[in-house]
């Protein structure tokens, strides 16, 4: 055992220790939640004849509800596709998942962000692939395959942050700290005229309200700080394992879509902001220069225009020899390894069938962008 321990790389030992510590912290979070819930119920039931114990029980019950495990759900504002709605798309996703050795997604949602990510929903933690249409429009077919492979592998159970036990603890801490945040509206600014009727009574009431607000803020400060600090601790403990999962996802993208497509997808991360800016320009142009009736469909070539703009930006960028790579270390790592050929290809007939399946959902997302505007450019979540 001593010989085996010494033969392990230092990074592997650090990942194992961090993962074990993360499981311990997550277990402590779930245990505290259970203790808070059981203790609150006992205080309310046993001390029902008193006043103090039920009040304490209600406070503890509120903390337990704030820390309750979240199962996750599909975003009701995004178009959702099942296998029956898009058989060609799910056939592609199934081939990518089989090549990567992970479970295929159960649903697909289309979003207006420049990203590809996997979320979990339901008690069984089904997988939903959220495809950002700006990224889908900007990437050529093989880079789309690379981005999907990267997202599926990065969200696989090999990533400790994707495992139900740790993920639910992290989600509970994040949501709980947000739930017990300070209420910014719990303050009254009152400067009444001395001649106003009942000015002194109103000023006294406002002062009492502000005092109670300050007291409640200080009372909530301790659990909020504890939840936020524990969430940061979990993120720090899982950072080495998450970095390893990121590199493993890079390798899976190279094996699935080819090394060239994986490197190109990494390089094209810097298209996020200019593509979103172009989408914003198109939205403004459509709403101002080409006004149309309420509820009418936006211009049909919205996503084609984004694709053409991304191609122009890619040509300009490739001609700049002084530009900095989006993630030079990961690009250099993939370039130094043996080159892989594509195991899954998205050919022209397949792209045409998928485009036909996505036409109506794409129009729905474009309608939402016309209505709500375009969110700011983000770091692509599939190729972090």
What would you say this structure looks like, in words?
By secondary structure, the protein is mainly α. It is 63% helix and 5% strand. It contains 15 helices and four strands. It has helices spanning 2-7, 10-46, 52-66, 87-100, 133-138, 141-154, 164-179, 199-237, 239-257, 259-267, 272-288, 302-318, 328-336, 348-357, 359-372; strands at residues 80-81, 107-111, 116-121, 126-132. The protein has a four-stranded mixed sheet. A hairpin with a 4-residue loop joins β3 (116-121) and β4. α2 packs antiparallel against α3, α2 packs across α7 (164-179) and α2 crosses α9. The radius of gyration is 26 Å and the shape is globular. The protein starts with a helix and ends in a 12-residue tail after the last helix. 34% of the residues are buried. Mean pLDDT is 83; it is low at 1-10 and 293-297.
Q: Please tell me the overall pLDDT.
A: 83
Q: Can you count the helices? A: 15
Shape: globular
Largest sheet: 4 strands, mixed
Rg, nearest Å: 26 Å
- Secondary-structure element sequence? HHHEHEEEHHHHHHHHHHH
The strand order across the widest sheet is 1-2-4-3
Distance between the termini: 37 Å
Structure summary, number of beta strands: 4
- The share of residues in helices is 55-70%
Strand content: 5-15%
Global structural class: mainly alpha
């Amino acid at each position: 055992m001593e010989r085996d321990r010494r033969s392990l790389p230092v990074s592997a030992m650090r990942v194992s220790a961090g993962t074990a510590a993360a499981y311990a912290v997550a277990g402590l979070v779930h245990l505290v939640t259970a203790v808070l819930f059981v203790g609150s119920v006992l205080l309310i039931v046993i001390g029902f004849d008193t006043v103090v114990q039920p009040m304490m029980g209600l406070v503890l019950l509120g903390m337990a509800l704030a820390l309750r495990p979240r199962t996750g759900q599909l975003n009701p504002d995004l178009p959702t596709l099942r296998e029956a709605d898009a058989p060609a798309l799910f056939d592609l996703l199934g081939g990518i998942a089989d090549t990567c050795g992970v479970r295929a997604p159960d649903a697909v949602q289309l979003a207006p962000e420049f990203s590809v990510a996997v979320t979990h929903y339901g008690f069984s933690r089904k997988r939903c692939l959220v495809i950002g249409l700006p990224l889908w429009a900007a990437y050529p077919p093989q880079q789309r395959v690379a981005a999907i492979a990267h997202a599926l592998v990065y969200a696989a159970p090999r990533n400790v942050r994707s495992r139900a036990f740790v993920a639910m603890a992290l989600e509970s801490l994040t949501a709980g700290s947000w739930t017990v945040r300070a209420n910014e509206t719990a303050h009254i600014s009152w400067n009444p005229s001395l001649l106003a009727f009942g000015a002194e009574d109103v000023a006294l009431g406002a002062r009492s309200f502000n005092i109670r607000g300050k007291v409640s803020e200080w009372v909530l400060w301790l659990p909020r700080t504890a939840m936020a600090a524990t969430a940061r601790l979990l993120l720090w403990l899982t950072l080495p394992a998450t970095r390893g999962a990121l590199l493993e996802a890079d390798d899976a993208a190279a094996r699935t879509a080819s090394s060239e497509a994986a490197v190109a997808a990494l390089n094209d991360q810097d298209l996020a902001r200019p593509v979103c800016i172009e989408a914003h320009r198109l939205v403004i142009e459509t709403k101002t220069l080409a006004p149309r009736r309420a509820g009418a469909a936006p211009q049909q070539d919205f996503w084609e225009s984004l694709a053409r703009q991304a191609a122009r930006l890619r040509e300009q960028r490739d001609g700049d020899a002084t530009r900095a790579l989006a993630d030079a270390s990961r690009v250099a790592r993939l370039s130094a390894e043996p080159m892989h050929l594509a195991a899954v290809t998205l050919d022209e007939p397949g792209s045409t069938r998928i485009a036909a399946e996505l036409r109506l959902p794409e129009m729905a997302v474009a309608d939402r962008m016309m209505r709500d505007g375009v969110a700011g450019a983000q770091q692509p979540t599939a190729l972090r």
